[in-house]
Amino acid sequence: MSVQSIGMPVLREEDPRLLRGRGRYVDDVRLPREARGHVVRSPHAHARIVSLDAGLARAAPGVLAVLTGDDLKARGLGTLRPLVPRRRRDGRPAFICPQPILAQGCVRYVGDPVAFVVAKTLDQAKTRRSCWWSSTRSCRRR
Predict the structure, then answer these.
(1) What number of other Cβ atoms are within 10 A of residue 127's Cβ?
(2) In a 3-state reduction of DSSP, which class is residue 50?
(3) What gap in Å lies between CA 102 and CA 67, rounded to an integer?
(4) Is the Cβ–Cβ distance between 104 and 78 less than 8 Å?
(5) Burial 64-93 (b: 16+ CB within 10 A, else e)
(6) Which stretch of DSSP H or E encloses residue 16?
(7) Is 0.85 surpassed by the pTM of this model?
(8) What are the respective helix, strand and coil percentages of the chain, to the nearest 5?
(9) What is the arithmetic mean of pLDDT over 36-48?
């Protein structure tokens, strides 16, 4: 490898392979008995989850598991917290806002993860996602 200077072209070895469609990606690897996962995301911004129907997804062909925020909470896996607690400048502990892995009771933004579906194929995991939202309503504080 030679020393590069600012403004000098960088020799890229991977471009011809990628441009000709011969690149290999992790998604191209298929293993025997592998399962695929899909995150079901919220189509609503800042809404309360009144009910969530995971029964249709669980009954779909090829679906191996469906996890919702309530399932994770029941297993003690409901939130993400920082591994290293942060401190304020004066040394006191900083405020920690727990982030749920999957939404529990209220979604905060469009695309907030609501459920995780595991199936034999990705297409099977993605099916019936329009059937998830039984009922939502605004999540305004009053």
Answers:
(1) 19
(2) strand
(3) 9
(4) yes
(5) eebbbbbbbbeeeebeeeeeeeeeeeeeee
(6) helix 15-19
(7) no
(8) 20, 25, 55
(9) 88
